[in-house]
Each structure stands twice: as C-alpha cells, then as structure tokens.
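EI: anyone free to look at a 145-residue chain?
SC: sure, send it
EI:
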Amino acid sequence: EAEPRTGDVLAVVPFSVADAYGTKDELPVQTRVDGFPYQGELTPLGDGYHALIIPREVRRAVGKTVGDVLRIALSYDPAERVLAQPDDLAAALAAAPDALAFYKKLPLPEQRAYLRWLAGAKKPDVRAKRLTETVYRLERGLKRP
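SC: here you go
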C-alpha cells in the first residue's frame, strides 16, 4: 500500500509482534529488502498488526515499484537510533534550544520526515526557507513539516 505524499509503501508483518517481541509499540529492526540493508521500525497500525514502512528510496535502490513482490528479512535491533543531521539544520537547532529539545523527543519517523522535507529543497533559497520553517514548527511543537 503506497503513502501518496511520500511514495513509501507498507509491508504488513504476517505475525504478531506483540507475541513475538512482547510489545505493541514501535519495534526497531534491521532489515534487508531484496538484499538491500535498511534500518527501520515495525510500526503499529492500530488494528493489532504492525507494518514495515519501506521508503521510496529503498524501493528505487532495489528497482521495485508499488505492487511488486519484495523479499524482506528482519531482526530486532536494540541499538539506539540517531539520524545524521545536515550541518545547516544542526546549527539552526543549536541556536534554538526549544526546537532542539522538541526535535530530540520526536520519534524517528517524524525526525525523518523533517530531514526528507529539508533535503527535498533543490534550490538554496527554498532550502533556507524550509530550514527557517522547520525551526519555527519545532518551536511550536508540530510533529510534521
């Protein structure tokens, strides 16, 4: 199932994550999607099932599109997750402690959404505007760009 805004797809997990791992919350995993390594999360869908969100970038790397069959291997990954921030975002957040504190509390998918949105700006003036708006939104406690 494709997410129209991002092009991400969901792969529903065919077993009970709660029974297998003892949690109904997000579960960090290391995966291989058609052999391509990817660090992700099994995200609860709200109906007792979990799904692996497969970003468009991963699908493109393995040459697949919506509707194609993927081979997915996964394992629980207890390592702490930290996303690399571009230098301009790190500097902007360092100058805005409230925005930085809120950003650090965000779950990884929301942090990733901000990073993707910022990276999607191809022109320097658009990137500068998005950077300013990112800090503004984070200072106001908004989870998504």
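EI: The helical segments are 17-21, 56-61, 87-94, 97-105, 108-119, 124-139.
SC: 👍
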